[in-house]
Specification:
The protein has 19 helices and 18 strands. It is an alpha+beta fold and 528 residues long.
């Protein structure tokens, strides 16, 4: 579920899309505080489900299974399930701290300063986008709300709870956002590899040390039942087993299948981008979340990289340019999206200038896309965005160049994440893209050229959990293989000039952050 809307998708047991619908939801933004309403979201989900059911021509009694996926936002409710405010305003409707909210940067820094052993499973430190820092912020700043809350829940878990009344939490959410060690319950764990905290799942000392020892997590021990998924992880489940038709006829042995899935990384591209990769062995990667046991694909360790603003950054760049209103009018007159029009402008510019590849249009513009911090692999929420190469040009063509340079900056960030993961044990050679940005052919091609990896654009995930819950498949992997549809494969350019160009721009990209650190240090010293 994206921050701005609730949606529903109906699939047949063969994975065929029968109908889909969405409904808008409200969001409040005030500086670093970003909030939503669980009541509003539930009403939007209900409306979307009814509309999708109607479009699919499916009677309610014929729906055999239901699965929820949502952002990893934090929901606060009291003993009766009523909303409790997490807002400075005291507005009870605003009972959700949205995943991208950065109010808890200070709390995250103080938590990480303790160097608790459990933090190694978070890439070496928690992010302000995770739940522990947000909980500590509420306790320190909204004591009345803190005392009223009976249940703190990830949004996807709350949706399942609202639908069923069952408070069982998802292994996906608790492992990835709450520091729960899901591998504590795996059958093959070795006594010599385990510490006390790994034997019980929760590190009670960690929660005591950070000042949240009084927190009632509301979880029954020993039952990490997967009832829902974080939206990005649902995307991973939906496309991780997607392979081109030609590849699907290749070796299908269990050993080959396990090796193949470990060579893929899923890019869930929306407001932000999550980079999901799995492995049979746990890989500790500094600055990258995980390893998380069984948090996405059963019995595999999940590595979760990410960029906190991608689609949101492109929207910001385009909407705040002086040429945006005129461009929007032109797009509307042609009945295409503003991004389709920008792509057309870029290809036209390349033709007019008689250049061999479109990427070279941005040789003078460089973008560090850390406008909402760097989640991976630098794990620096204080990092800022940089645009190098501004002029006084305010034309539509200038906006198109800035748009392309921003796409490239995002893709260089993905390359940095992939290289970092491969340097620490992964063997990623294929990228699978899903989400709204995967529909943008230029966005996908730039990622293929810049990473040097084969990209497969998959526009439809699968309601895998609902199908498994309905006992249509014996397990999640079986449902993934049956329902994951093959997508369009995009290969890196074979032109060596393209690689040389992007290698040069990538080095500039990496240097922009180093320059920022130098500037940050110089100004800090000047203010001492």
């Amino acid at each position: 579920m994206p921050p701005g809307g609730g949606g529903a998708v109906f699939l047949g047991v063969d994975g065929k899309l029968l109908g889909s619908a969405s409904s808008p939801i409200q969001i409040w933004k005030e500086k670093d505080c970003i909030e939503q309403s669980s009541t509003d979201i539930w009403h939007a989900v209900c409306a979307a489900v009814k509309h999708a059911c109607s479009l699919a021509n499916v009677a309610p009694e014929n729906v055999v299974g239901l699965g929820f996926a949502a952002t990893c936002s934090l929901v606060a409710v009291d003993a009766d399930g009523s909303p409790v405010s997490v807002s400075w305003t005291g507005d009870a409707r605003r009972n959700i701290i949205v995943w991208m909210d950065h109010r808890a940067v200070d709390q995250a820094e103080r938590i990480n300063a303790r160097n608790s052993p459990v933090l190694q499973y978070c890439g070496g430190g928690v992010s302000p986008e995770m739940q522990a820092p947000k909980l500590l912020w509420v306790k320190e700043n909204l004591q009345e709300s803190w005392s009223m809350v009976c249940r703190w829940m990830d949004l996807s878990d709350w949706l399942a709870y609202r639908a069923t009344g069952d408070d069982t939490r998802s292994l996906c959410t608790t492992v990835c956002k709450w520091t729960y060690l899901g591998h504590a319950h795996m059958e093959q764990w070795k006594e010599s590899d385990s510490r006390d905290m790994e034997a019980c799942g929760w590190d009670e000392v960690f929660w005591e040390e950070i000042g949240l020892g009084d927190l009632e997590l509301g979880l029954r021990p020993g039952i990490p039942v997967g009832t829902s998924l974080i939206d990005a992880h649902a995307g991973g489940v939906g496309v991780m087993e997607s392979v081109p038709d030609a590849d699907s006829k290749a070796d299908t042995s269990d050993e080959s299948d396990e090796q193949a899935i470990c060579h893929r990384m899923v890019l869930v591209c929306g407001t932000s981008t999550c980079h999901m990769a799995v492995s049979k062995n746990k890989l500790f990667i500094p600055g990258v979340w995980g390893p998380f046991w069984s948090a996405m694909v059963p019995e595999f360790w999940l590595t979760e990289g990410g960029q906190s603003a991608t689609g949101a950054l492109l929207d910001y760049i385009v909407e705040n340019h002086v040429a945006a209103p005129l461009l929007a009018n032109h797009a509307a007159s042609q009945r295409i999206s503003i991004y389709e029009l920008l792509n057309k402008i870029l290809f036209s510019m390349a033709h007019e200038q008689n250049i061999s590849f479109i990427s070279s249009l941005t040789q003078d513009i460089h973008v560090l896309p850390d406008f909402h911090g760097n989640r991976s692999p630098l794990a620096d929420p204080k990092s800022k965005g940089i645009i190098c190469g501004f002029t006084l040009d305010t034309s539509e063509k200038h906006l198109a160049l800035l748009y392309l340079a921003t796409i490239q900056g995002i893709a260089y960030g993905t390359r940095h994440i992939v290289e970092h993961c491969n340097a620490h044990g992964h063997k990623i050679d294929t990228l699978l893209a899903c989400g709204g940005l995967a529909k943008n052919s230029l966005y996908i091609q730039e990622h293929a050229d810049i990473t040097g990896k084969e990209n497969e654009s998959v526009l439809l995930g699968a309601a895998v959990l609902g199908a498994v819950a309905a006992k249509k498949f014996p397990g999640v992997r079986d449902a993934m293989k049956a329902l994951n549809a093959a997508g369009k494969v995009v290969y890196p350019s074979s032109d060596p000039r393209v690689k040389k160009y992007h290698d040069a721009k990538y080095q500039i990209f990496r240097s922009l952050y180093e320059q920022q650190l130098s500037h940050r240090s110089a100004m800090a010293q000047a203010l001492q």
